[in-house]
Amino acid sequence: MNNNRRLPDSTVEVFPIGLGAMPLSLANRPNESQALDVINTFIDGGGNFIDTANVYCADEKDVGHNERLIAKALSKPDNVQDIIVASKGGLRRSKSDWKVDASPEWLRASCEKSLQDLNSDSIFLYQLHAPDPDILLTESIGELAKLKSEGKIQHIGLSNVSVEHIELALSVAHIMSVQNRCNLFERQSFNNGVIEFCENNNITFIAHSPVGGHYQHAQRSENILLKKLAEKYEVSAYQIMIAWLLHKSSSIFPIPGASKTISIKDSIQAVKVELNKEDMQILEATIN
């Protein structure tokens, strides 16, 4: 469980826990110095996979903030080597909301801007942020396949999808990853077969919000059972939640978010937590 994991159909190995960079760029984000410290702390701790998106920002005038922040962090010579950045396209940002737009034209424009903001010639993993009910999924994936053939992206991923979406996407292009919300309290991707499908088809399942997300993590950590197990293993409740995902499947790759260095330091220590079978069963039976 604690060994680095190889991403499908690549020679790239990643630390078992990634960094979800979204909290570093929302309206209530930390200052730039603190945000850069979070990224650097993650890298110094052995992390090498950072998840971002063009719409991780404060509003429509701020699009690309998260990508530019990551590019600045990676401009340090010590940070450039072996760091994987995964971005997304397919949403439009407004002052208070996100709207799906997975049209080929918007995906292409978004990808090309992301290349500029990331200061990169090619994005390792580019994910469709969400299927667009007004656009055929095959058209969206077809455009990502074109971007891949042009070398602008190296691998294609999906986010916020069902098994049916994945199967349809696979009819057009190879899919490296699927990213859905998933944690001990929110198990839709277990219950609807997405994780099993990923396991059976050599697709990495990226679990975002693995400790409850930006707005629920504090509440989740107060669960009585989690606090009891955290005391038993002498770790935080957050580490228990991340370790649970790591133990569930070698295909699962959690990407906890962080806006403070202490948070990401804590999260990456979850690779050392060895939950026994009995405690895994108790967690599954008690929290649902």
Short description:
The chain has 288 residues and is an alpha/beta fold. It has 13 helices and twelve strands. Helix 1 runs parallel beside helix 12, helix 4 crosses helix 5 and helix 10 crosses helix 11 (237-248).
> How would you spell out the order of helices and strands?
EEEHEHHEEEHEHEHEHHEHHHEHH
Give unreliable regions as ranges.
Answer: none
Strand order of the largest sheet: 3-4-5-8-9-10-11-12
Count of separate DSSP helical elements? 13
- Could you say which overall geometry the principal axes of the C-alpha atoms support? globular
- The CATH first-level class comes to Alpha Beta
Largest sheet: 8 strands, parallel
Give the DSSP E fraction (strand runs of 2 or more residues).
15-25%
Q: What is the architecture at the second tier of CATH? A: Alpha-Beta Barrel
Number of DSSP strands?
A: 12
Quote the average pLDDT.
94
Oligomeric assembly: single chain
Question: Nearest-angstrom radius of gyration?
Answer: 18 Å
Total individual domains = 1
CATH fold label: TIM Barrel
- The CATH superfamily turns out to be NADP-dependent oxidoreductase domain
Structural class: alpha/beta
Ends distance:
24 Å
Helix content: 40-55%
